[in-house]
Amino acid sequence: MSGQPYIEFEMIQLATFRKSKSGKWQARVSKEGREFSIGTFRTKKEAEIESSKVEERIYYGQTLNDRNMLFEDVANEWLFKHKKSNVKDSTFVQLEMTVRVHILPRFGSHRIMLIRRADIKKWTQEYTNMVDEVGNEKYSFGTRLRHLSVLKSIFHYAVHELEVLEKKPCDRLRVPVKDSVGINTETKYYILDELNALLNYMKEYKHQRYSGYQIYYMLMYFLSQTGVRISEALALRWSDINGNKLTVERQTSRDDHNNVKITTLKNSSSYRTIGLNDELLHELKKFKLKQNEMILGTDHFYKNSDGIIFQNYLGNYLTPSTVRDSIRDYCKKAEIDYKGTHGFRHTHAVLLLESGASIKFVSKRLGHKTIKTTADTYLDITGKIEEDELKKFASYTHN
């Protein structure tokens, strides 16, 4: 306007962008005469969006942390400052081993800002391709999934807590699988005929020292009828049974010296009360009578001070390794493939679903955190469920 001074506003461009030979865009921002790289992006628009976030932090005087941190430093801070005080000791031990053995050897010496999505995809693929001495997968799908989950948590910490990254290079990255079945190839369970054959064998099996004390028959039968985890079963007490209800509220673990520890459960949904059928209650009653008979009338057979259900003759808690070795040996004698101690939990879930139980009932009974966990694990592994559902549909629509 006439008579008004003309004021020119200067826009200060803090970010610069450069297109690389690969077609991706690199972005850098300036602060106090120094330039910081904020990463590489698929499009210029993505680079502009991320750089604007950094510019905003610079404008408001927020600290830009050291973007040249080594991945090892970030991982150790996540592990010892963030996780150690927030998880159970046993969980921390597993996390520490995963970081030390499987993650740091690959990424530890790299600057965290230079680790790219392609590097992580290559790492996950290499673990997928690893085989043991007989050609089987060295690491199961579930194990590889845990490795990637830990790595994602470290990058999440780098972005949201340390603020040394603007984006996570592993977002929406999945663990590769060798076939289309995916996680369900890891779910081993006994079909009904196999389970019955194994239990019939165990019912007739006579222990050389205490022939009437059929602890492994009772344990296998109990696991297949309740679906509780082996760590939960070994911590159960007779007082946890009230009428036809069983309360699950603790589990066993072992310290570095193999001493038993009674710990809290996996998560809040693991605390549960489930129903017991009449046949199982009858078998438990017989087992308890036999146990008391052995304690009162047999030399060197002692009572457990906690009143646990599955005690050995010395009155001690069973160890998971002993249980695994014993059940593997019994399966071999019964000519049944060994499916692991967790196989009985899977068996219980599959048989429930095949008998027509709802996915919500199964999920609650198993103590899963979400119904999705149950559905992802079980619904696709049994052809009988799909066959029955198709028959229902055909019957409904048949004219």
From TrEMBL:
**Domain called Tyr recombinase: residue spans:** 185-392
Can the keyword DNA-binding be found in this entry's annotation? Answer: yes
**What stretches pass through the bilayer?**
none
Similarity annotation: Belongs to the 'phage' integrase family.
What Pfam family is a match, any one?
Phage_int_SAM_3
* Domain Core-binding (CB) span(s) in chain numbering: 69-159
Keywords of the record: DNA integration, DNA recombination, DNA-binding
Task: Please verify whether the record's keywords include Zinc.
Answer: no
Q: What is this protein called?
A: Site-specific integrase
The scientific name of the source species is: Bacillus carboniphilus
Give the matching InterPro entries.
CB, DNA_brk_join_enz, Integrase-like_cat_sf, Integrase_catalytic, Integrase_recombinase_N, Integrase_SAM-like_N, Tyrosine_recombinase_XerCD
